[in-house]
Amino acid sequence: MNMPNSQLVGWTAILGGVIAIIGVISLMLMFVVGEPFGTINDILAIPVAILMLPLVLALYRLNATDHSWLSLLAMIAGSAGFIATAVGSILLLSGRINFEQSLVYGIGGFGLIGLWALLNSAMGVADHTLPKGLTWAGILLGLTPTLALAAVLRADSIANALSGMAGQTAAGGQTSPLIYVLFTLGFISYAGLPVWFILIGRLFLVGRASISAAATIA
């Protein structure tokens, strides 16, 4: 990967990560204050998806030499995940789907993004193409979203749980501790993955990922 491409990948990943962090903050404010922060979170998901696609392709190119099929699977998962979140947000904002229906896109997309991070991190551990700490962080952050893919077909239950948490919080009630644990683990990944995007983008920006790619090809 030449320097201009590395700069493009680095800056778009960093910008996408920063916007995603703003989205995380908006989501937190939605649960505390309410609208318009939920709408802001939905809007921000669209540019994040667009900005992250160069990194999806770059990581595929980084790992394709030694892991052709696995890197292809990761690229497909990442592309589909980011596109799904953007499409879901567009449909929700335009009134074409309701909140419960949007969870299919949101949870499914989030799960595929987690799978993409997990697979690329696993390949990074195997080939030392990425820093060790960053790869293990990617594995841990990607694990919960990947497991959450199984919940896509239970979007109605998740919507009810979210409504219950918000309603009981306002009323001073209690929600099952297990529900809180599951949502906390998911939120840690949701908040942590944007930071991972930024750190991966920085590797491309300073040329460390390019050096790794060159070494792999050699």
List keywords for this structure.
single chain; 218 residues; mainly alpha; 8 helices; globular
Instruction: Give the tally of β-strands.
Output: 0
Order of helices and strands: HHHHHHHH
Portion in helices: over 70%
Arithmetic mean pLDDT: 84
Distance between the termini: 13 Å
Main sheet properties: none
Write down the overall geometry. globular
Q: Give the low-pLDDT segments.
A: 167-173, 211-218
The whole-angstrom Rg is 18 Å
What portion of the residues fall into strands of 2 or more residues?
A: under 5%
How many separate structural domains? 1
Helical run tally: 8
Secondary-structure-derived class: mainly alpha
Short synopsis of the structure:
With 218 residues, the chain is mainly α. 85% of the residues lie in helices and 0% in strands.
Structure description:
With 218 residues, the protein is an all-alpha fold. Helix content is 85%, strand content 0%. The chain starts with a helix and ends with a helix. Mean pLDDT is 84; it is low at 167-173 and 211-218.
